[in-house]
Specification:
heterodimer; A: about 180 residues; mainly alpha; Arc Repressor Mutant, subunit A; 2 domains; 9 helices; about 70% helix; B: about 80 residues; elongated
Chain lengths: ~180, ~80
Amino acid sequence: MPLTDSLRDDILASVPSLRAFAISLSGNGDRADDLVQETLLRAIANIDSFQPGSNLPAWLFTILRNLFRSDYRKRRREVEDAEGNYAKTLKTQPAQNAHLEFEEFRVALDKLPQDQREALILVGASGFSYEDAAAICGCAVGTIKSRVNRARSKLSAMLYVEGAEDFGPDDTVRAVIGGSGG
Amino acid sequence: MTKEVKSQPNNPAAPRKQGGLNAEIQSRIGHQLRAMYDDVVRQGVPDRFAELIRKLDGPDAAAQIDPTAKNDGRD
């Protein structure tokens, strides 16, 4: 459809959540904003292929996610120090204790496999349905559900179970079980 | 996660099944996830993006800024 003023407004309204998604994916504010810019350019360049009445945020998230994936493959060998970059993008710093917990959470999230991290964010933070998240990631609904469950189990093991830093898949299960009593 | 979980007899606190995390931990994870995300959402639209969207007339203008943009981002 043509780029009408109302479509322009709708795209603009999606920018804050596109940025949040990009930052959660990349863990790096500067790179995230580059991703968002590229997403907007692609969206507008290909606006003719957007179906009126379909889910605009899901369409934009799909573009961003695909850009991130191809970009990630290119940069795979580059060593990045994303540590602390996320915090710099925040305007308000939480109080000290809360900030520490927040930082731990972000670090744990970064350790998740990419598939699981994006599924958890789309469903748990962006508020997409499992069906929309599956469409965005190009996979089955059941796959999204299992990725979200695995992401939650791993985060729980990393954050709320002592001594679970060096866990593999087996240890995750054990840590979840071992930690559930205390 | 297809490996068999070692059985833990006499451990009533063990999750009923994989992914059956205790509700409190699930809610903490959900809360932190949204707090992190919403912190960015609340920053609103940075000027650079508002300007970009305002000045782009349509597909041709976007393709001029980034000639590689003229596909749907899939590869």
